[in-house]
Design goal:
single chain; 8-stranded mixed beta sheet; binds iron/sulfur cluster
Length: 290
Amino acid sequence: MKRQPRSATTLKKWRGEESPSVLRRRGCQFCSVYGPVASWRFGSSLGIDPIGLVSTCSFNCAYCQLGEIEQKTEQRKTFITSEQISRDLRDFAPWDVDIVTLSGSGEPTLALNLGEILATVKEMTRRPVAVLTNSTLLGDARVRQDLSKADIVAAKIDAVSEAQWRRVNRPVPGLDWQILWSGLRQFRQEWSGKLAIQTMVLASWSPQDQDQYIDLMQQLQPDEIQLNTPTRPRARQRQLETRGNNPLTAADGMQILKPVNAEILAIWAQKIATSTGITVRCVPLTATGP
Ligand code: SF4
């Protein structure tokens, strides 16, 4: 099919360059679709944000590119209707991307209408759909049911102990490390789609922690492990642009986090792959996208 040339406005929108103020002036408070983002994990990825203008998550990770999470909660609710997502998606037709990814301004499984959103996106775009989740709500059977509509789920595991989890991910009070793990194991058993474990490495792990991680991965048997290290600046204040390919720098008031050395990451990846037989991918240290 021959594609129509895109207008400058459409191209700007594709690149996620419209600020909330511009959107408001246009009578559109918020666009739930952004990108495409150049993702080192998924290729060309169109982002869906089911959360909205206020960043909302059950974690407040020390490295989160969104900055300090504005609304910290583990309560699910409908933030953006699937009708709005469907309307916003129409502007991005014909969706010539490798994948559509639900991530955006917080934790996508907090969206009570997640299952409906996934069904809508798949039906409209006919593209594979991935969800990036922090794994906290997988103990809830309704969340697992919703997530099972995805083609790929990338579940965050940044820690091997409750103390490390509290330090790195800073969960909201009431979340339980053991429930997270049992939910993740149960999801793995129930669902036959592609499960990737995404792990953010902020500093070299001790040999004991590495062994513990390998042990956990041997038990879980994900399809893939994605080792990441901070390559994107962290917002000091909430800025919608940080959900996509973040063009902002220290000069814009962003905090630059130090990535772990590429060689250290590669050695650890090799150790995990050799011990578990699971494919391990490392972020290229020039990457900017999720
Ligand atoms: S889980 Fe994701 S969105 Fe939530 S605080 Fe951590 S990095 Fe940010």
